[in-house]
Amino acid sequence: DEATAGAAELIEACYAADGLLWSSPLYQGTISGALKNALDWLHLLGDRKPPYLHDKVIGLISTAGGTQGLQAINTMEFSVRALRGWAVPYVVPVASASRVFDDDGKIQDEAVELQLRTLGGEVVRVAERFAADHTVHRQHECNRAAERVMVEGLSFGRSLNLDETAASGLDDVHVHFGPGVVFVCEVEERL
Fold first, then answer.
1. Which residues of 38-61 are buried (b: 16+ CB within 10 A; e: fewer)?
2. What is the pLDDT of residues 125-140, one digit of tens each?
3. Closest to 18 (Cα-Cα) out of 73, 55, 52
4. Continuous H helices in 42-85
5. Cis peptide before 50 (omega within 30 of 0)
6. Are 90 and 149 within 8 A, CB to CB?
7. Judging by DSSP bridges, how do beta strands 172-178 and 181-186 pair with one another?
8. Between 75 and 154, whose confidence is greater?
9. Contacts of residue 141, Cβ cutoff 8 Å, sequence gap at least 6
10. Alpha helix stretches (DSSP H) within 64-137
11. Taking the CA atoms of the chain, what radius of gyration do you get in angstroms?
12. Which of the 8 DSSP states describes residue 95?
């Protein structure tokens, strides 16, 4: 496969980055064809040392015309893992995107703006942590990010219910912060 000039630029930018934000509109229950095509080019990173997006920190955003947006996030998360990256546990599915952004793409909803800033902050924080300490335990860092975001969610007056999951040892945690915002982190064990 011979990369076009634009694809080569994308490949090199992704490989050089410490952190990335991926965003896609929800089309037919999945990511856009344009993002899928861009991600497909990243297979050319397989021969690098380290390969693919090894230990890159990636934040995930989706937009939807209706109330569902997690299908695109789920698809992107599978791609992150396939490319050996790390998705931060806080994700931002933006429901009813036409009410959130104006015609020029500016954010009109302060809650969504806060969510996007939180996501960007988490990507930077975790990427800096990964860059500073090559021995850091990645799952532990994921768990710490999850706890930090949960606390921030509580401080902004959103409800949080972990009762049964926390008591059972935290196999999978799905925490809902409010309409359109879902925080998901797979946790192997309580640290």
1. bbebbebbeeeeeebbebbbbbbb
2. 999 998 887 665 656 6
3. 55
4. 70-82
5. yes
6. yes
7. antiparallel
8. 75
9. 126, 129, 130
10. 70-82, 97-100, 110-132
11. 17
12. S
Asked whether 146 and 160 are in contact (CB, 8 A), the reply is no
Q: Tokens standing for 35?
A: 């993002």
| Contact partners, residue 162, CB within 8 Å, separation at least 6 | 150, 173, 175
Residue 150 is predicted with a pLDDT of 59
33 burial via Cβ count (<10 Å: 0-12, 13-18, 19+): exposed
**Predicted confidence (pLDDT) per residue in 1-29, tens digit:** 689 999 999 999 999 999 999 999 998 88
Structure token digits, residue 118: 């939180």
> For residue 68, what are its two tokens?
């569902």
Please check whether residue 160 is in contact with residue 154, taking contact to mean a CB–CB distance below 8 angstroms: yes
Beta bridge partners of 60: 22
Tell me the C-alpha distance between 73 and 60, whole Å: 6
Among left, alpha and beta (phi > 0; psi -120 to 50; other), residue 105 is left
Say if residues 143 and 158 touch (Cβ distance below 8 Å).
Answer: no
